[in-house]
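Our preliminary data section would be incomplete without showing what the modeling component actually yields. Below, a chain of 547 amino acids is followed by its predicted structure, encoded as tokens that our downstream tools consume directly.
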Amino acid sequence: MEALLERLRSIDLLGRADKLKKEADRGVLAEFARSGVKFAASPGTLESAYYSAVHKLLDCVAHEEGAAPVLQEGGVYKGCWLESTGTINAELLSRFVPSVSGATYEQFADHRREDGLIPYKVAANKPVFRQIQLVTPPARSVWNHYLLNGRDQAFLRKMYEALAGFDAWLEANRNTRGTGCVEAFCAFDTGHDLSPRFWHVADTPHLDDPAKVDPDSPLVPFLAPDLTASVYCSRLYLGRMAKELGVAADWEARAEESLQALFRHCYDERDGFFYDGDKQDRFVRLQSDNLLRVLACEVGDDALFAASLRRYLLNTRKFFAKYPFTSIAMDDPRFDPHSTYNSWAGATNFLSLIRAPHAFEKHGRHVELTWVMQPILSALSRMTRFGQCLSPWTGEEGYTESYSPAILCMLDYVERLCGILPTPEGELWFTGLLPYPMDHGSRLADQSAYARIVNEVSYELTNGPEVCSIYADGRRIGRFPAGIRVVTDRDGELKAIVGMTVRAVEGRIDWRGTEYAFRVEGNERLEFSGGEFVSSYRPGVVLPGYE
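Predicted structure:
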């Protein structure tokens, strides 16, 4: 382990920058290096793929003349999309290159229309307003960036005003049926290209106007659960922004209205599933990643999420493929596993994979999330192009290349599984797991090491099969059994531990020279108080199913 730690310390990102495609990339790479993030593993299969991802990330940063660098979707997608690049992608990037993330958010505010509509896409620094293309709640992504990166109130106020105006536009133009739900007028409103969800519905709005729906369609407007859930969640976070800025607003009450409309019009209690409601007041009975999208918007309590895991997300007849999650339930005859084109008809999409942690971690389902991350990291370790989607059967990468959600999935999943992750709530997560050889016995990492700088302290984490260690500025401050997550505050003070495997982990943690005994179940959180650990949350573990 000492040799691996020394190799981690010797890694020089900028020293590897002699083959940059654009000289402007050097500044982006330098900012990544200032985060202190490094990863080393033995053997080096996953490590090599990881640094390939870091350098391909540079292909996804646009440097337009007179404008700050911004994130692009990547590959064939020339521009920045609200549903992804401008929300969840930028939210992940905030932990690595925050200036690019911040500029990516701000361009949507800069280009908003006078009536409040923000563009669904910005390409070559020009806004495009054809559809709304909304999935991940923009306000949550902005709020998390604000908390992680210095609480810049000027940034927050600018984004709050833009997103509040966008909410008003949606209420005025996408509630034509008066239900309180947000309506989808076309397939591209949700980014569900080629999904059977929108068979016999146009890809784009009527006359390319986001405020118009085809008057001759017998099906749309749909009461869309993912759009409604996104607005619900954004309203919760707009409420947090308003409070932070001292603005009087009723966002919480408006969020509750959205939540009630969602369950009233889009939730089928018999199936325990969220469906679109078509123009004829019928459910569009297609089980798609609509469910995961809604849950990732913080909809539902712990019981609903556990039930969704059992019936759907961890069900190998539904979405829990060998490489989860499929975009359509596998037992639906419309399911299409092919991944060689831009499709939400079945293939595993990286956007689903980077949205998923919000759903799982909201309900303390950390163990179950590792069952998603492990096979995906095996697939990522083999990637050379970083395409948009995977074959759910083989894990082979599919359509396009240098796709930022795939690249950021690599960075995010490594950090969540075996790295040091700073949360918006002010915690640091040191996770003592290793990538497991899921595919053909191919070893990804018998040992790993990870580094990150937080509050000017250089932290390092080394993980072995049995024992893990935490260092601060080169001095070991913690030693603990593998299979748990150690949680500290941003100053490195011990707060809690979390069970990260299905089995109970029992042992002792050595923290700053004092040992403390513990026993923690899977998903259980033990708070550290008064020199001992006390259980604060113990939801158990939901097992994968087959029926």
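The mean pLDDT is 97. The chain has 14 helices and 26 strands. Preliminary results of this kind motivate Aim 1 of the renewal.
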